[in-house]
């Protein structure tokens, strides 16, 4: 089981803050493709991803228990 | 006393500065980022900040480490607020101390630039003419410099 987190605009689009799914073994890219089909989230392919709170890339393979967060362009400060 | 914090309470700049004061430091530079009413002719009514709190603290600690590497004689504290903020309220306070002022000034400016690049905090603008997430992919300025740097 993996934990997916949505923030800002993506959270509004998904209509939820998080999602628990059986997608261990997927790459980030595959997960994005799956989410795009299931939830119709716009611009996921251009969204940065964090795996267990560190930025990662689309080729990273997701392990069981990972927390994957989609990080729209940040605007703090 | 946490040097890197996300809070939903108002921030007192003195409190953040107090965390970096020490006998060896002859300078403390404190930056406050506040909510501006007018941006390019558009009026902001209020802002809402959202954070991925645990990761935001981690990334602020990373910035603190970068600063330590570049300006070894400095000490840094950052507090960023989340939730609803009104005009003139403080969203972020960055305090840097150093034995002499130059490194504190330089490090402080470096920190705000890095916050805007890689700390997962999002600002929602409530404009007079509508609402929008700032920095959204649908706007014309996605990630500055092509995205936050990747670390292995």
TrEMBL record, chain A:
Gene Ontology MF terms: nucleotide binding
SUPFAM superfamilies in UniProt: MoaD/ThiS
Gene3D superfamilies: 3.10.20.30
Keyword terms, alphabetized: Molybdenum cofactor biosynthesis, Nucleotide-binding
Pathway noted in the entry: Cofactor biosynthesis; molybdopterin biosynthesis
GO cellular component, one term: molybdopterin adenylyltransferase complex
Keyword set includes Ubl conjugation: no
One biological process term in Gene Ontology: Mo-molybdopterin cofactor biosynthetic process
InterPro entries named in the record: Beta-grasp_dom_sf, MOCS2A, Mopterin_synth/thiamin_S_b, ThiS/MoaD-like
Pfam families in UniProt: ThiS (PF02597)
Protein role: Involved in sulfur transfer in the conversion of molybdopterin precursor Z to molybdopterin.
Oligomeric form and interacting partners: Heterotetramer of 2 MoaD subunits and 2 MoaE subunits. Forms a stable heterotetrameric complex of 2 MoaD and 2 MoeB during adenylation of MoaD by MoeB. During catalysis MoaD shuttles between the two heterotetrameric complexes.
Family, similarity comment: Belongs to the MoaD family.
Listed name of the protein: Molybdopterin synthase sulfur carrier subunit
Naturally occurring in which organism (per UniProt): Salibacterium qingdaonense
Automatic annotation (TrEMBL), chain B:
Catalytic activity: 2 [molybdopterin-synthase sulfur-carrier protein]-C-terminal-Gly-aminoethanethioate + cyclic pyranopterin phosphate + H2O = molybdopterin + 2 [molybdopterin-synthase sulfur-carrier protein]-C-terminal Gly-Gly + 2 H(+)
Pfam families per record: MoaE (PF02391)
Name of the featured protein: Molybdopterin synthase catalytic subunit
Family membership noted in the UniProt record: Belongs to the MoaE family.
Transmembrane feature ranges: none
UniProt entry keywords in alphabetical sequence: Molybdenum cofactor biosynthesis, Transferase
Biological process according to GO: Mo-molybdopterin cofactor biosynthetic process
């Amino acid at each position: 089981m993996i934990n997916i987190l949505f923030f800002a605009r993506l959270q509004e689009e998904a209509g939820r803050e998080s999602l628990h799914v059986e997608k261990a073994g997927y790459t980030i890219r595959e997960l994005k493709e799956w989410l795009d089909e299931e939830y119709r989230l716009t611009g996921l392919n251009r969204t940065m991803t964090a795996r267990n709170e560190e930025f990662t890339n689309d080729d990273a393979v997701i392990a069981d228990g990972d927390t994957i967060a989609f990080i729209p362009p940040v605007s703090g400060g | 006393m946490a040097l890197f914090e996300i809070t939903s309470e108002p921030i007192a700049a003195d409190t953040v500065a107090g965390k970096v004061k020490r006998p060896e430091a002859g300078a403390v530079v404190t930056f406050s980022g506040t909510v501006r009413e007018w941006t390019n002719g558009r009026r902001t009514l209020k802002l809402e900040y959202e954070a991925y709190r645990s990761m935001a603290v981690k990334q602020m600690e990373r910035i603190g480490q970068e600063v330590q590497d570049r300006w070894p004689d400095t000490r840094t504290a950052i507090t960023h607020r989340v939730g609803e903020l009104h005009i003139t309220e403080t969203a972020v306070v960055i305090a840097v101390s150093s034995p002499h002022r130059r490194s504190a000034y330089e490090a402080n400016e470096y920190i705000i630039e890095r916050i805007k690049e890689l700390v997962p905090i999002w600002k929602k603008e409530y404009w007079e003419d509508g609402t929008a997430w700032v920095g959204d992919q649908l706007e014309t300025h996605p990630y500055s410099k092509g995205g936050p740097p990747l670390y292995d």
